[in-house]
Write a structure and sequence with these properties.
16 helices; two-stranded antiparallel ribbon; 42% helix; 482 residues; alpha/beta
Amino acid sequence: MTDTPGGKPLWDRSAAELAAGIRAKDFSATEVAKAFLARIDETNPPLNALVDIRPEDALVQAAAADTAVAAGGELPPLLGVPVSTKINTSLRGYASSHGVAAWAGAVAQDDAVCVAGLRDAGATLLGRSNSPAFAVRWFTANDLHGRTLNPWHSGHTPGGSSGGAAASVAAGMTPIAQGNDIGGSVRFPAYCCGAVGLRPTVGLVSGVEPHGAQEFDSPMSFQTMAVHGPLGWTVDDVRRGLHAMVTPDLNDPVGLPARPPLGRPGPVKVAIVRDAGLARPHPTVNAAIDDAARWLGEAGHEVEEIELPLLGEAARLWSLLLYQELRTMMSEIELFGDDAVRVSLVSSFAAAAEIWGEQPSLTEYIRGYARRGTLISRLQRLLGDDRILLTPVCAEPPFEQDADLAGDARLSELLAAQWPMQAVPVLGFPAMSVPTGVRDGLPSGVQLIGGRFQEDLLLHVATAIEARATRARPSFAGGLSS
């Protein structure tokens, strides 16, 4: 069964609609799984968004969900809802390859904590989403699994590093996808593919891998900036994915001991920041900001435009702290990485050197972390519990494929354009990428930034944008645009 009585295919249903329909026995979890597997068969071959798809595994999970429905009693919130997981996050019985050919056989014996949260919520874990090697590019390709294409236009990136997750959600392969983000890897792919992506507050979702997984001493930037978060086709899909992934875990060095309150939605003050002094926004980016600001005003929110150099300073700190620590991993990347990730990082280091010099001193590095604390306190005071920021996701439309391999000059432009992606991880605040429509054949969108642990406030405001934006799936009728 692929269609409901209203004529809408099951693969185009939201997570809420799927979970409710399975509970009400309007359709079974098995029928849902088969509908999404058929959609994957239709759309994944040209996109290469999902890898290691095992239909038999998905159908076993779906059959277990149907048995639970038949037995009655309390059912988990995502029962039977298909969700993909990323190739750099442990899923029991599947390789955590990180897009590295040498690690193709690194089969996980158990789930990462955030994946266990999705499994406990009843999700059907369906397919692994593609990523660049080591998840350190804004483009998605690797020597093990190949290139992922943007479902709107093959000449533009689907984003990275969660590019497979975003492309699969936009194409209707799953309503929810798990991703992770240290410099835009959830938010930028969502922007490029016209999906919704949420980067939670650091510590809200556990980043701990299962016991027995290969351990390595994670750099400080990975501990304080990297998070797991959901992508989805709708704001409510993302909300439901987030609530399943919130995993109190004291084994995480920045994890929280309990679930914090997730905000108090109500009247919101919206402060627009178009430019942090690093890159002027493209006209289509400004148009998306204008649309979102108008819609939020119509929804009754108070909207104003402000200057906030703090965000530009935070973005510059990102290029100091993260890249200095990535340099310490280059021996492993040189040994196991592909040519693209090596070339991209060399140009990235050159771009950072334009800001910090070829060899930043230990003093600059230490002062960078000290300054980070000051900026966090300043931004939290500004936002409080009733204000959010509305910014670009990126100062440019979705980049052309492999723009980071086009030389140091182009990489410097990318780094500057991605200031909204970089500022947030340094500060550890939650942020969302919300689509606003399609312009010149490519998705457009905006970023919302909230105070710490104010995810529900962001979701509340994002819902107002979603209600007014024109949404459409990319068309595959005539093949991908190129």
